[in-house]
Amino acid sequence: MQESSDVAANGSPNGTENGRLETFGSSASTLSSSDSIKAAYAYLPQTPIRSTDAHLIEFSEAMRTVAKALRRVAEGKAAAQAEAAEWKRKYELEKARNLQHKNEELEHEGCPCCMNGTLEDSLNKLTVHDASSDQNECCGNHGICSHQVLGDEAPAPIVNSAYKMVTRKASFRLSWGCNGEKNGQHKHDVVSFEKGDITTASRSNKQILLKWETQPQTVFIITKPNSSEVRAIMPEMVRWLNEHQKINVLVEPRLREELLADDSYFDFVQTWEDDDDKKLLHTKVDLVVTLGGDGTVLWAASLFKGPVPPVVAFALGSLGFMTPFHSEQYRESLGNVIKGPFSITLRNRLQCQVIRDAAKDELETEEPILVLNEVTIDRGISSYLTYLECYCDSSFVTCVQGDGLIISTTSGSTAYSLAAGGSMVHPQVPAILFTPICPHSLSFRPLILPEYVTLRVQVPYNSRGQAWASFDGKDRKQLAPGDALICSMAPWPVPTACLVDSTTDFLRSIHEGLHWNLRKSQSFDGPPA
Ligand SMILES: NC(=O)c1ccc[n+]([C@@H]2O[C@H](COP(=O)([O-])OP(=O)(O)OC[C@H]3O[C@@H](n4cnc5c(N)ncnc54)[C@H](O)[C@@H]3O)[C@@H](O)[C@H]2O)c1
Ligand SMILES: Nc1ncnc2c1ncn2[C@@H]1O[C@H](COP(=O)(O)OP(=O)(O)OP(=O)(O)O)[C@@H](O)[C@H]1O
Questions:
Q1: Does residue 473 line the site of ligand 1, with CB under 6 A?
Q2: Which residues form a coiled coil (predicted)?
């Protein structure tokens, strides 16, 4: 175990090691790096070392050096794989941008100034949380326009009667408020560098407002299954949206069947038929409504592998940390949101990618998984400690020896990470949490890292225990020795509508949901005599 922490902690090999590296480098080239590492590790425990036998000691040291060198090769491979995945992502974004431009040119619609910004630019603006705030001017210069963020892709194929949406998505604009003012006169630079003096700009509350530019037309309702409370309110809400708001309603296939089984009136409710339709959801849905608890919000986010439309979460669960709206008042709440403008919280997601040691080349990567709460690597049913090597960008962070590790978003900071001793972080703080689960160490405190880093968790070849990754508490995947998990902030946050604003909603949740810092007040015995 000590071996791999030495590997990571050592910056570069010393002179003798260098000499040996060259010798072993040639033999390593005939084997795959992973096979060689496995062979080296397998050989180490069998190497008989007698204090009197200098040759064997030297040979054993040489083997350790080989193992170190091969580990570096493996790290290089993982870094190359991460880079390949990043290029793939950029390629997909570029493709989406081209499609979007083509559509916009064809239709000659929307705000012409939007054509200047790239999709990547606007997505970056979203994750960096730094944008202009003038709410009266054109969106290209003073906010983020939905043409850039949730742009239409190719016209949707008309598949069946239940998926017959041909309407164009509503466009909207995001603007950043400043202490409630709407004049846009404040400085929005985070840091300015004038005449050689570095100063931070005056703070704004950075509450984000979403204002529709065209009327929303399609609402996607997602419900928690097997809940009588949800079953009672759902048909009522669908009717109201259809009859009073003239809005198309889309639901999951299971729910459409349930609605139709009760009443053929619901024939107008749309759904999708296959995965290709499902992938296009974000191009058609203006608003997502969830009826359930936090798990339903997580479920809703998981249905969108790219951009996510604004989510209005009604509390029909037990805790409801991310579900601020009261279901009894759905008419008023939805009416306000459909009319706009309304405050939103941009909840960052993590993009997680498993890189298999057995993958034949850099391009053979698994589909990335987006999480709203966290990715957890735990020991599964194994009773051994997990042993995980962690890197942040190219720096070694630490080895986790314990029950596991949670890499969490700030939204997830109040979920599993909190239970493992992590701090609660306001969801609008741009950060990634690094929280160990039951570390067998007296000094392993949780970390909070900036949102721009890439984290890599590697299962070493000499790990005794198993490692299992789970994503927002679901989709468990085993990580074999040599496998790695790479996490970075995804460019597609989940915009959730606020009941009041981000901060008020967050504080209300920690007070009401978690009873944070609840204590009997000290009694006052009167002023001292
Ligand atoms: N020891 C723990 O606290 C523990 C263990 C496993 C999973 N979880 C959490 O459960 C989540 C999955 O939730 P689920 O509803 O599908 O499963 P679930 O039904 O088992 O619910 C777990 C609980 O976590 C709460 N929760 C979920 N996200 C939250 C958030 N962002 N802030 C505050 N509380 C939150 C839920 O309201 C629920 O009470 C995972 O992402 C993980 O964070 C927690
Ligand atoms: N549309 C859906 N389809 C399938 N499963 C879902 C769906 N919505 C929610 N779930 C799952 O149902 C489970 C319970 O949902 P949810 O967490 O919303 O309810 P709850 O546990 O009553 O509320 P809370 O999380 O507030 O305690 C979760 O595991 C969630 O992933």
A1: yes
A2: 77-109
